Amino acid sequence: MSTITIYNEIQAALSHGEKVVVATVVKTMGAAPCPIGNKALIHQDGSMQGSFAGPQTDSKVAQEALKVLRAGNPAAVHIHLDADQGEAVGSCGATLEVFFEILRPEPRLIVAGAGYVSQALSRLIARLDFRMIVVDDRRDLAESQSFDSKVQMTFGDIPQTIRELEPDEASWIVIVTRGHNLDKEALRAALATRATYVGMIGSPSKVKRIFRELLEEGIERQRLEQVHAPIGLDLGAETPDEIALSIAAEILMLRKNASGTSLKTMHSLIDADEPATDVSPQEKAISV
Fold first, then answer.
1. What's the pLDDT at 7?
2. Helix (H, G, I), strand (E, B) or coil at 201
């Protein structure tokens, strides 16, 4: 398979929200059947596009790729080609040094509703490496200049547009529409997708009422339990800007697999025996 074809397949996988591994031969030892720079694409189900030798070697490559995918970090691995299996050119076998790199689709934040909270959220999220898409059925808001210039504005029926966007594992959905019924229908549409995160604004009583109605209409309890509602962290937020901050904080916490705990409570620094020598992310951020 040519390099161009591999890149096309990578683009196709990423556009469908799939996380993949690209394996590249960076060094060969012995009578290797493939050159340095040879690439293969491995999907989450273990299927592989491209080949380094034969089925035995390719199976090893796929297995190592899945290990890398589970670990979440790139890695270089030595893979031996057994001459007895006929996958090395000579009779002494060969060894490939293969670099495995994880490619992740660009995360999308789909926001249902273009009101004040959505506008405030856009100013925060635009700097957190999300591609933000705002959906609203009110043309004046869908064409508003109140959003960050990087935000993609979409006019149309909100539940239908959510479905048409086909949210995948790289998608996060925030529901902040103008009313109970629209929130409910947007949530119903969101729950039918593969989005990593679904959050909905609302008071506990409103959320409870929507959940009860959806349960009665056949939505599974387990699916509803995955919804982040009321959305956001408890910051005592009241204004649109404060609510947006609480939402952005929750999204960042989940994306970074963090606890949301106050840093003060995570360390006992008064009783520490030795001065700290590590540099925190906060210190790195303010040093530039």
1. 86
2. coil
Token output for 250: 């929750």
Q: How far is CA 125 from the centre of its chain?
A: 14
Confidence check: pLDDT of 88 > 80: no
Higher-pLDDT residue of 87 and 135 is: 135
| 112 located within any domain | yes
Condensed to tens digits (0 to 9), the pLDDT of residues 179-228 reads 999 999 999 999 999 899 999 999 999 999 999 999 999 999 999 999 99
Quick check: is 243 in a domain? yes
Rounded Cα–Cα distance for residues 20 and 182 (Å): 36
What pLDDT shows up at residue 217? 93
Are 130 and 160 in the same domain?
yes
Cα gap 30→90, rounded to integer Å: 8
Contact 97, 221 (CB under 8 A): no
What range does the domain containing 43 cover?
3-103
Residue 49 near residue 1, CB atoms below 8 Å: yes
272 in a structural domain? no
Burial 3-39 (b: 16+ CB within 10 A, else e): eeebeebbeebbeebbbbbbbbbeebeeebbbeeebb
Strands of the 75-81 sheet, one edge to the other: 48-49, 39-42, 20-30, 94-103, 75-81
Q: What is the dihedral of CA 52, 59, 12, 73, to 10 degrees?
A: -100
Rounded to the nearest 10 degrees, the angle between the axes of helix 204-216 and helix 180-191 is 60
The total number of structural domains in the chain stands at 2
pLDDT value, residue 276 = 58
Q: Using an 8 Å Cβ cutoff, are 143 and 153 in contact? A: yes
